[in-house]
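Thread: Modeling a multi-component assembly for a lab meeting

Hi all, long-time lurker, first post. My supervisor asked me to bring a structural picture of a complex we are working on to next week's group meeting, and I have zero experience with this. I have the sequence lines for every component (486 residues in total). Could someone generate the structure of the whole assembly? Inputs are pasted exactly as I received them:
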Amino acid sequence: MTAALDALKIGVVVFAAAVVQVSVVAPAQVLGGTADLLLVTLVAVALLRGAAVGATAGFFGGLVADLATWETLGLTSLLLTIAGYWIGRYGETTGRDRAHAPLLSVVVVTILHALGSILLHTVLGTPVSVGYALGTTLLPTIVLNVLLTVPVYALCRRLLPPLERPDRAREVNLLG
Amino acid sequence: MPRNRTVRLAVLGSPVQRSASSPSSSRKASPIRRRLLVGGLVALSLVLITLYFREPQEGPLHAARSAGALAVKPFQVGAERVVRPFRDLYGYAAGLLQAKSEADRLRAEVERLRQEATQYRTAFEENKTLRTYVDFKAPRAFPNDYRPVFAAVLAYPPSAFEQQVVIAAGSDSGIELNDPVVSPDGLVGRITNVTPGTAQVTLLTDRSSSVAAIDLDHNASGLILGRGPDNGLVLDNVEKRYVVEPGDEIVTEGTQRGKWPSLYPRGIRIGTVSFVNQTSSEIFKRIQVEPAVDFGALRAVVVLVPRDRE
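Re: Modeling a multi-component assembly
Sure thing. I ran the full set together rather than chain by chain. Output:
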């Protein structure tokens, strides 16, 4: 029951983030960049719930975004599935309990998302302006995403409190 | 839960939290299940992309996408309505800051436009009289021969590479493919996908867009081509013998040029010439046009539905 409620909460959070992103955040350009609320929310969810949930949330959020924007179906899903998995793995291993993990993850994933997006659009034959995407929009987008990270992560952490992990050692007993 | 560290640990600097290794089979299977899940989702995404690309517009995946878009629409409308008061407040505050200089500029512009309007009214009456004399057959005229359908923008381009927006009106409102879309500032684009409740508008800046256009000040005609969000618009196919200068106003020509049929009525504002150049090796002039519409700040649009279709 708790797991189902948790899944429902994650679904609602990701769905809301996707809808708000395409309807409200996307048109708001600041210094040439646009914040990506869906990506930031995904980072928070993946860090709090791990790789499997991160990948699933990424796929679901991407699908909602693709539907809402009439984008090629599966394109955003693919990018966000990989992003969610990767951030989830980072959260489960190196980034576990590190305060800077959300900020670092957002910076890295924003860059990788931009590169992945360029690559996929190039493969699909969409005209791509690499200079514009990397030169003009990337830096302000990173800054905006980082600014969004603090409140979004705090909100997600409140909605999705960290789970008690059975595999986590609570104390270390040294021999000798 | 407070961590249980010992002094010795702190000195040794050993990481406190370690995953305890467990021999249980479920724990060993967990990474495999996780990888299978991610692999499955990635494969599903790739299958969706491939099928979506290969199937025709009326294929089942496109139909599912349209149904999904329709299902998401109420949430998009809701989100937009919740945010609108805040956006308006911001716009009001930002407007106040530049109101004084804006008022001076507008006063001067009104004066200039008043004089122009008088001249145009005279020319318009003269034109009407002459048309009756020669029994002139005119194409659909903007705006009288079109019924405006006002629609809010529901979704914006998901990345810098797409130049399409989704609007909250569709075939239920009489909208069909290729209907022109305008805003108070000028031409926005055309309808490229339509469902009963929503429609996709491909913006003028999209690289697939081409519009027959004319320079109002020097009567030079050419083709407006989209060059993406960073490069704006280009007025192509203008022969070197024509004079075009920065500041010239460009509007839709409303005629067919070569293989490009004009989907737009004559006289819709497109933008202003910002740069003109020509080289000895090229046949045509190089002309850049600053769009009249701020595509990044598009909140609502007007779709022009021909009255004679109804």
